[in-house]
Specification:
The complex is a heterodimer of chains A (251) and B (251). Helix content of chain A is 82%, strand content 0%. Chain A has eleven helices and no strands. Chain A has helices spanning 2-28, 36-48, 51-82, 84-97, 106-113, 117-141, 145-153, 158-192, 201-210, 214-242, 244-247. In chain A, helix 3 crosses helix 8 (158-192). In chain A, 28% of the residues are buried. Chain B is α/β, with parallel strands linked by helices and 251 residues long. Chain B has a six-stranded mixed sheet with strand order 6-7-8-3-9-10, with helices on both faces. In chain B, strand 1 (2-11) and strand 2 (18-28) form a beta hairpin. The chains are: A mainly alpha (251), B alpha/beta (251).
Chain lengths: 251, 251
């Protein structure tokens, strides 16, 4: 099992990381870098202080952003791959906007959509959607024409071709992309939660920092890291179930 | 009965029409098996692509059992050179694909037929494997099974055995002829091996260089003969074929 092996690797990494952290913290011995043991022991404590609300709010923003980006990105990617006109119209737009650092648009998004959840979700969508579009478009265009032949000779309808060829053929690329997107989404989330909100794990970290509550700040960093890892494992599990044909090796 | 009347095909790369095939006229009786032999690039694949409905842009008439050939109306089994199995479906699901696309309800008699054919082609034990876990010969047998399972009106094979090593090829040819004798499906296949044409074709169609036309159609008395090479006639026929082929290919 791939995901089990990954969890093992994660645990090894986790232990090594903490040993290093512990040694460095012991050597430096400053308040700004507490020992990991202290941070973990303190975390129990924080759970009661509604840390979980921040986690839930952040999860809501990530999943909404990811969901909308996927729906939009897959649709636009498919249009670009299958329709000449669509590709002609959208390609220059995507090509032009792809390299713009969308985080710079944070003020614009906030001015247009307010300080609430929607501006944070929209920023995540902005950044992820272009990657999804490009991944889906390329995956569809990479399907070799021969792949369609058996179905064409069976007289398959467009829908049948879509279900039997397009969807399974683009899934691996889509999931790889999703894995990268989640890392990006978490970074953007952290950034955008620094503004105009009282909730979210990003806010929690920044707020603790300002209040010189380093224990809580580190706890927040640990939590956001675990969140990223949990999402990573989730994608591995999805990939293992949906792309069995790819994961298994000969014999 | 498959009737091909004055069929010709041109491609349009870079707006300069390239005449790839024809004009060709050919009548294939029901329960006949035709071998197309000719130099590479002579349009064998093009002809098979027209018959399988992959190429829709052609001049002339092609009718199957009195109706214009159409993969939505006819049941056409097409086995491409790379066998055309879908990488994301197990052997069993690949075998069911033809019935699924034709939206036939899978009855117990279907299941019986599927089990029988899979058993006969010796792929029952591979039913839950994915194509990437199969050898060339196994993929080939799965592809043959898929085509026979839907009892096609017309079976087309594009150099079906050329990707196999010599030993596997002989075995696969025997298995195929065995299957064919049982179901007597009207079949057209292309090959570049004179021996294969003599072993598997009731009629042998020799094609010329591009644009491919028919040089000669030979009634093959040696169809389905075991130990071909021991027959005197085999050497005569293959010498004759070689002769015609050489002449035809120079044209």
């Amino acid at each position: 099992m791939k995901s089990l092996r990954k969890i093992k690797t994660f645990l090894q990494g986790f232990i090594l990381f903490n040993i290093l952290w512990y040694i460095i913290a012991s050597i430096i011995s400053m308040k700004v870098l507490p020992k990991p043991t202290d941070v973990y022991l303190n975390m129990n404590h924080l759970y009661g202080k509604s840390l979980y609300i921040h986690v839930l709010v952040s999860l809501y923003r990530i999943f909404s952003g990811l969901g909308i980006a996927l729906i939009l990105g897959i649709s636009i990617g498919l249009i670009m791959a299958y329709s000449n006109l669509g590709s002609k119209l959208l390609n220059p737009l995507v090509y032009f906007t792809y390299p713009i650092p969308k985080t710079a648009l944070l003020p614009v998004v906030m001015l247009l959509f307010g300080l609430g959840n929607s501006s944070k979700i929209i920023l995540i969508v902005f950044i992820l959607v272009f990657q999804v579009i490009v991944a889906v478009k390329d995956a569809v265009l990479n399907i070799s024409p021969e792949t369609y032949h058996p179905l064409t000779s069976l007289g398959a309808s467009k829908l049948q071709v879509f279900i039997n060829i397009t969807v399974p053929a683009i899934l691996p690329a889509l999931l790889t992309n999703l894995r990268l997107s989640i890392g990006t989404a978490l970074s953007i989330l952290f950034f955008s939660e620094g503004y105009g909100t009282q909730y979210g794990i990003g806010y929690y970290i920044l707020d603790s920092w300002m209040r010189i509550d380093y224990m809580a700040m580190y706890a927040g960093i640990v939590v956001i890291s675990l969140l990223g890892f949990a999402l990573f494992i989730l994608i591995d599990i999805i990939e293992e179930t949906l792309c069995k044909w790819k994961a298994t090796s000969t014999n | 009965m498959l009737e091909i009347d004055e069929l010709s095909v041109s491609y349009l790369p870079d707006k300069k029409a390239v005449h790839a095939l024809g004009p060709i006229s050919l009548k294939v009786d029901s329960s006949d098996i035709y071998a197309l032999i000719g130099p590479s690039g002579c349009g064998k694949s093009t002809l098979l692509h027209v018959l399988s409905g992959i190429i829709k842009d052609y001049q002339g008439q092609v009718t199957l059992n009195g109706k214009k050939i159409n993969p939505k109306k006819h049941d056409i089994g097409f086995i491409p050179q790379n066998f055309g199995l879908l990488a994301w479906k197990t052997v069993y699901k690949n075998c069911l694909l033809s019935l699924r696309i034709k939206e036939k309800a899978i009855t117990s008699s279907h299941i019986e037929r599927i089990d029988y054919i899979m058993d006969k082609l010796n792929i029952t034990s591979l039913r839950d494997r994915y194509p990437r876990e199969l050898s060339g010969g196994q993929k080939q047998r799965a592809a043959i099974a898929r085509s026979f399972i839907m009892s096609p009106d017309l079976l087309l094979m594009d150099e079906p055995f050329s990707a196999l090593d010599a030993l596997t090829r002989e075995e696969a040819q025997e298995l195929f002829v065995d299957m064919w004798n049982q179901y007597k499906t009207t079949t057209v296949f292309s090959t570049h091996s004179i021996e294969e044409a003599i072993y598997m074709g009731k009629k042998i169609v020799i094609m010329s260089h591009c644009p491919g036309t028919i040089v000669e159609i030979i009634d093959n008395p040696l169809f389905n003969t075991k130990n071909l090479r021991e027959h005197n006639e085999f050497h005569k026929l293959s010498a004759h074929l070689r002769n015609v082929v050489k002449k035809g290919w120079k044209l």
